[in-house]
Amino acid sequence: MNILIVDDHPLFRHALIQAVRHGLPQAQIQEKATVKEFYEYLESGAEPDLVLLDLNLPGASGFSALVHVRAQFPAIPIVVVSAHEETSIIRRAIAHGAMGYIPKSANPSHISEAIVEVLEGEIWLPANLPTQDMNDACSNDEAILAERIQSLTPQQFRVLMMVAEGLLNKQIAYELDVSEATIKAHVTAIFRKLNVQNRTQAVLAIGALKITEKTI
């Protein structure tokens, strides 16, 4: 059993490792701290049996990483592990393809229980979550944007997240070790797929996937 933990806080990664080993003592556990490391690991051909994914990660914007990874690697079950405990956020995560949602305040035994249930094909949610239709958790604008994010290639997704961070084409080219012309081509393709005209509109568009409390 191969479990991947993606969280930028070393102490919480350690706590998750202990929780995983409590329920699955023989599991092989890998750790990644950023979206960049996460993608590099998946693109290397690795096939984890389960991913435990934090929502607040360097290189991502809200639900964007969850949405895109689910599209690129649909066979890999993802459980969100987050400090956000609002019902609407939990429902949005499930609507975007998560197989479970574990609050970071959860008892370690619940974390182990969640992992085992998801590996058995079940969806795991906190016990006190109101019973509602998860498919209706997202607004129409958010659902449309999620589909558009799913259409991006992994490199286009990286570029979009860097655009959202305010980096210029020259800076993105340096970070990704490609030419500025290549980045310009990616940006043009991103604008087309997101149905926007410029960087400002692109950044505003992905705001629909930010983690904000909504009344659903």
Automatic annotation (TrEMBL):
Pfam families: GerE, Response_reg. The keyword Phosphoprotein applies. Keywords: DNA-binding, Phosphoprotein. InterPro entries: CheY-like_superfamily (IPR011006), EvgA-like (IPR051015), NreC/VraR/RcsB-like_REC (IPR058245), Sig_transdc_resp-reg_C-effctor (IPR016032), Sig_transdc_resp-reg_receiver (IPR001789), Tscrpt_reg_LuxR_C (IPR000792). Residues 145-210 form the HTH luxR-type domain. The modification 4-aspartylphosphate is found at residue 54. It comes from the Bacteria. Residues 2-119 form the Response regulatory domain. CDD domains: LuxR_C_like, REC_NarL-like. This is Response regulator transcription factor.
